[in-house]
Automatic annotation (TrEMBL):
Organism of provenance: Nocardioides albertanoniae
PROSITE patterns, per database record: CYTOCHROME_P450
InterPro entries with a match to the protein in the record: Cyt_P450, Cyt_P450_B, Cyt_P450_CS, Cyt_P450_sf
Family per similarity comment: Belongs to the cytochrome P450 family.
Protein's name in the database: Cytochrome P450
UniProt GO molecular function: cholest-4-en-3-one 26-monooxygenase activity; heme binding; iron ion binding; steroid hydroxylase activity
GO BP annotations listed: cholesterol catabolic process
Phylogenetic placement of the source organism: Bacteria, Bacillati, Actinomycetota, Actinomycetes, Propionibacteriales
PANTHER family, alphabetized: BIOTIN BIOSYNTHESIS CYTOCHROME P450, P450, PUTATIVE (EUROFUNG)-RELATED
Keywords per UniProt: Heme, Iron, Metal-binding, Monooxygenase, Oxidoreductase
Length: 459
């Protein structure tokens, strides 16, 4: 039997020694301060001084992307690079793409001191956990060349477009099974929550099969996925942060045993292939394997849930676009990109200048943070005609930046597109007259954008 999810017990070990409760709590407090407490405090203080980026990031958990459009345009009117008290902020498509593809900028908020001798760097090193976290090395989201190049080269040998296409038939099969269950529930005439009964179950089942997770653990993995996804957000309260780290710790505990099991009992899943992978004698270490698998799980799961949920809402609210898809089913792939463009799963991402640089004609000193607002770039009128309009026939819908750009372009982009296309198409084919009911509810997160509840009546 594959390793079952078990809560970690006893004190954690790190760097060959056991951490006491006091030290463990202190390190956790520093991690919270660096990743959430200090950034939130800096943003709030800047907002009180009239800094517009405070209105953007602290606009209220769960704010709809559409609610922020006027703010996007206010930033755009002030020039290509807004200088706030906490960071610079970019909303133009061209400028954001320049930042994301430049070697002068790296990931992370406290990464400018590459010598590791600065206060934040030393605090981060002291408090680092040996538990997987999406925004900590060796995660692909938190590493730069040459390490990032090596990781990505190895991982992309397994997570190829061809491998994703092999999952297409299985994804359709999973979606139809879930829709069969929904149809039985709908027969009673009651309402169903599409997020919990479909949007979440489809990607978690696909990701579980990619990772070789037994189906009986699907529901627990779904709960862990929700907790782990919070690690991608900013400004978490202390209690929420502790709950998030507990989810990461439980998942990490399970993953260690699961990787050992796959090494001895490899399957046909992609993670088994990654465990066994050799490339001119190179291979991923156990810690690197945990980082890759954890990132696929946490980032790939939540963004796909949001893509499907956001797509359901957009198509329900724009029935004329659904009619076009019914008449031209070959447009579903493009529709998935148009959904990603108009209501992206991720609001923004940050970069730090590793050296003095120039962006949009402005001098950017080393250590400067630039927040690139992906949702605003996707509505840039210089790139997208009538950008506020939802149009499944839009010819350049795929020019959105929802999957980022450059060396940190989303590794799971092809998988997310495929799952979104199939999940939405089969849902509306089965229930063309589905009606969303009152009670839609957005996630309480600021960076991740999606629905936590979508009550609907199916017919």
């Amino acid at each position: 039997m594959p390793f079952k999810i078990m809560p970690p017990v006893g004190p954690r070990k790190m760097a060959g020694r056991t951490l006491g409760k006091a030290e463990r709590t202190a390190k956790q407090g520093v991690r919270w301060a660096l990743g959430h407490g200090l950034p939130r405090t800096a943003i709030v203080r800047s907002a009180r001084k009239g800094d517009l980026q405070g209105d953007l990031i602290l606009s209220g958990p769960g704010s709809h992307t559409f609610d922020l459009v006027d703010l996007f345009e206010e930033f755009r009117a002030r020039g290509p690079l807004y200088q706030g008290g906490f960071s610079h902020l970019a909303v133009d498509h061209e400028v954001i793409k320049e930042v994301l593809t430049s070697n002068d900028f790296i990931t992370g908020f406290f990464a400018p001191d590459e010598s590791g001798t600065g206060l934040f760097a030393r605090a981060a090193a002291w408090s680092a956990s040996d538990v997987f976290a999406p925004l900590q090395p060796p995660s692909l989201l938190a590493t730069e060349p040459p390490e990032h190049t090596r990781y990505r080269k190895l991982v992309t040998r397994v997570f190829t477009v061809r491998a994703v296409e092999k999952l297409r038939a299985r994804t359709e099969e999973i979606a139809r099974e879930l829709l069969d269950d929904l149809e039985k529930e709908a027969a009673s005439g009651g309402s169903v929550d599409l997020v919990t009964r479909y949007c979440g179950l489809l990607p978690i089942t696909v990701i579980s099969e990619v990772l070789g997770v037994p189906v009986e653990l699907r529901e627990r993995m779904l709960e862990l996925g929700k907790g782990a996804a919070l690690s991608l957000d900013i400004g978490l309260e202390w209690r929420t942060f502790r709950d998030m780290e507990a989810s990461l710790e439980e998942f990490d505990h399970w993953l260690r045993g699961h990787l050992e099991y796959l090494a001895e009992h490899p399957g046909d899943d992609l993670l088994s292939q990654l465990v066994a992978l050799r490339d001119d004698g190179d291979r991923l270490s156990e810690r690197e394997l945990r980082a890759v698998a954890g990132l696929v799980f946490a980032a790939g799961f939540e963004t796909t849930v949001n893509l499907i949920g956001n797509g359901i809402a957009l198509l329900h609210d724009n029935p004329e676009q659904l009619e076009k898809l019914t008449a031209q089913p070959d447009l579903w792939s493009n529709a998935a990109d148009e959904i990603l463009r108009l209501d992206p799963p991720v609001l923004l991402t940050g970069r730090v200048a590793r050296r003095d640089s120039t962006i949009a004609g402005q001098e950017i000193p080393r250590g400067t943070i630039i927040n690139t607002v992906l949702a605003a770039a996707n509505r840039d009128p210089a790139v997208f005609t009538d950008p506020a309009t939802f149009d499944v026939t839009r010819e350049n819908a795929r020019d959105h930046l929802s999957f980022s750009s450059g060396r940190h372009f989303c590794l799971g982009a092809a998988l997310a597109r495929m799952e979104g296309e199939i999940g939405l198409r089969l849902l509306f084919e089965r229930f063309p007259d589905l009606q969303l009911l009152d009670g839609r509810e957005r996630h309480p997160t600021r960076i991740l954008r999606g629905y936590s509840h979508l009550p609907a009546r199916l017919s």
